[in-house]
Design a protein that fits this description.
Blueprint (H helix, E strand, L loop, with lengths): L4 E6 L6 H12 L4 E6 L9 H9 L25 E4 L17 E4 L12 H24 L7 H12 L11
Parallel strand pairs: 1-2, 1-3, 3-4
Helix pairs in contact: 1-3
Length: 172
């Protein structure tokens, strides 16, 4: 039996995008993947509307919490196979090292805290964010990882990060 791949999703606050990605990969990845998320400056709590959306779509949210990426830099932390950042910048911070074996990629997506407009517009944008992550993670989980070399994996993950996302942020 092939061991599961550990995947860490990172964004600044670890309150929305990375938690969504963790929940989606938990559901789509089966026994092949173990999903984690963290942030450079984690929020005290996940965004309530993100948790509500994930619950409404049948995701287990019981283990989701905002946490620092420092939890994954200790010697006893799980060894990461993939580290994927989900934001444009990490507030000027540089990601720590997660081991030589980790394949890294960037899938920059706008954070729900930036979504302007009323409740309906924000809900629509949250739906689009979820759909974009779901699509990317679905493609990621279908990659023949064991048969691809490190450079090919990195190239494919980068391609996923460049896939268009139709989120249109309103003005604040």
């Amino acid at each position: 039996m092939t061991p599961a791949y550990n995947v860490l999703f990172i964004c600044t606050r670890n309150s929305a995008r990375s938690l969504m990605a963790e929940a989606i990969l938990d559901k789509l990845g089966g026994d092949r993947f173990r999903a984690y998320s963290a942030g450079s400056d984690p929020a005290p709590h996940p965004m309530p509307e993100v948790i509500e959306k994930l619950q409404a779509l049948g995701h287990d949210v019981s283990g989701l919490r905002c946490k620092s990426w420092n939890e994954f830099t200790h010697d006893d932390a799980p060894r990461m196979d993939f580290v994927i950042t989900l934001c444009d910048s990490l507030s000027g911070q540089r990601c720590p090292e997660f081991g030589d074996q980790a394949v890294t990629a960037s899938w920059p997506l706008p954070g729900p805290a930036q979504f302007a407009g009323g409740t309906t517009e924000r809900a629509l944008l949250l739906n689009e964010l979820y759909a974009g992550l779901h699509r990317r993670i679905g493609i990621f989980t279908s990659l023949p990882i064991a048969s691809l070399d490190r450079m090919s994996l990195r190239h494919r993950l980068d391609d996923l990060g460049e896939a268009p996302v139709s989120l249109q942020l309103g003005s604040r």
